[in-house]
Amino acid sequence: MAIEPAKLNEFLGKVVGDIGAALSACLVMIGDRLGLYKAMAGAGALTSAELAQRTGCAERYVREWLLNQAAGGYVTYHPQSGKYSLTEEQAFCLADETSPVFLAGAFDIIQSCNRDEPKVEKVFKSGDGIPWGDHDSCLFCGTERFFGGTYRGNLVQAWIPALDGIEARLSAGGRVADVGCGHAISTVLMAQAFPNTQFTGFDAHPPSIECARRRAAGMGLANVAFEVADATSFPAPKGAAGYDLVTCFDCLHDMGNPVGCAQHVKSRLTSNGVWMVVEPMAGDRVEDNLNPVGRTYSAASAMICVPASIAGKGPALGAQAGPARLTATIKAGGFGTVRVATTTPFNLVLEARSTRSR
Questions:
Q1: pTM score above 0.70
Q2: Does residue 1 have a pLDDT over 80?
């Protein structure tokens, strides 16, 4: 077999780029946790000494951090002055936690995956699963921070309006169950936007529910509550026939019993209620997902999502299930109609109803 030098060099370039990115991930976390990005945002060009002084860090470490970040394109170097800065776009992604494209939280997920690699290696051989709650704790905060930006930028502004009739119903006053709510960024955003509606967040992970309760209490939200319950047993709303809306954000594919979840959701909805299922963007064919988004989600899926579903003796839909398989799963639970209500580059938003919308 003859090696073609051009193809070899092209592949080596890809691998070296990935090695540099993997080694730099911990430095992104350091920059995030120590406030280096935030200190650079809007500050103009800074020397390593100036940034070190602003953040209370040692200059020699900051100097090396800046070199690494500039080499990766995460900060901008100015050769004439020897200083570094953040462009508006870099700051929007790395320094602004309210941004819809804030990505620093993804590196918490990366760290949790690195810490959990020995566990995942074992289940690759055994075929066993890893329950969600057994992962490194960085996963839970990282998931909230990573998905939080997208939810802040889209949930109230675009996703709920894309559901037929739901925005008006929530504005008037209704009942919503947010199933698999985690630390409840999604629940809180909806509760803030629709003060006349009562929201209940459910999650099977008790520490996440404790975190959600503390957060809601600190914000003074009176229209939100949280309970420990899984997706196949969460209770009906008190004093009402059912929920007007049930939501599942980026969790159906993780479940051990997604069809059972669909069946239970259907039983908890009002006759004209809606189930909104937000899932990672994916196509139905392998070749549809051979892109950076597919690469990212399939990596997280292998490390987190598939092990979680297998731990619950589930079908392991995975984060790249795609609309056809998700629709089949939802319809197997008894829903009559399922449609893709809207999308983003990272999300599929599905609307499921027991019968056709009138």
A1: yes
A2: no
Same fold for the pair 5-94 and 106-353: no
Q: How confident is the model at residue 354 (pLDDT cuts 50, 70, 90)?
A: confident
pLDDT at 358: 39
Choose which CATH entry (3.30.1330.10, 3.40.50.150, 2.60.40.10, 3.90.1170.50) describes domain 106-353.
3.40.50.150
Which tens digit of pLDDT belongs to each residue from 38-49? Answer: 999 999 999 999
Q: Where are the alpha helices (DSSP H) in the chain?
A: 5-33, 36-40, 48-55, 59-71, 88-94, 106-126, 138-154, 166-172, 185-193, 206-219, 258-268, 292-300, 306-311, 322-332
CA–CA gap between residue 258 and residue 251 (Å, rounded)? 9
pLDDT digits (tens, 9 = 90+) for 269-307: 999 999 999 999 999 999 999 999 999 999 999 999 999
- Structure tokens belonging to residue 234: 């969460």
Give the domain ranges of the chain. 5-94, 106-353
Q: What's the average model confidence in pLDDT over 96-121?
A: 95
Closest CA to 78 of 87, 91, 90, 89: 87
pLDDT for the residue 355: 73
In CATH, the architecture of 5-94 is Orthogonal Bundle (1.10)
The separation between CA 167 and the C-alpha centre of its own chain, rounded to angstroms, equals 23
DSSP character for 242? S
Residue 267: half-sphere exposure toward Cβ, Cα within 13 Å: 13
Mean pLDDT, rounded, of the chain: 96
Among residues 279, 232, 280, the alpha carbon closest in space to that of 256 is found at 232
Residue 274 per-residue DSSP state: E
* Residue 5, pLDDT above cutoff 70: yes
- Which two structure tokens, joined as six digits, stand for 157? 């502004």
- 84 phi and psi angles, rounded to 5 deg: -130, 150
Question: How many Å separate Cα 254 from the centre of its chain?
Answer: 12
CA distance 235 to 248: 15
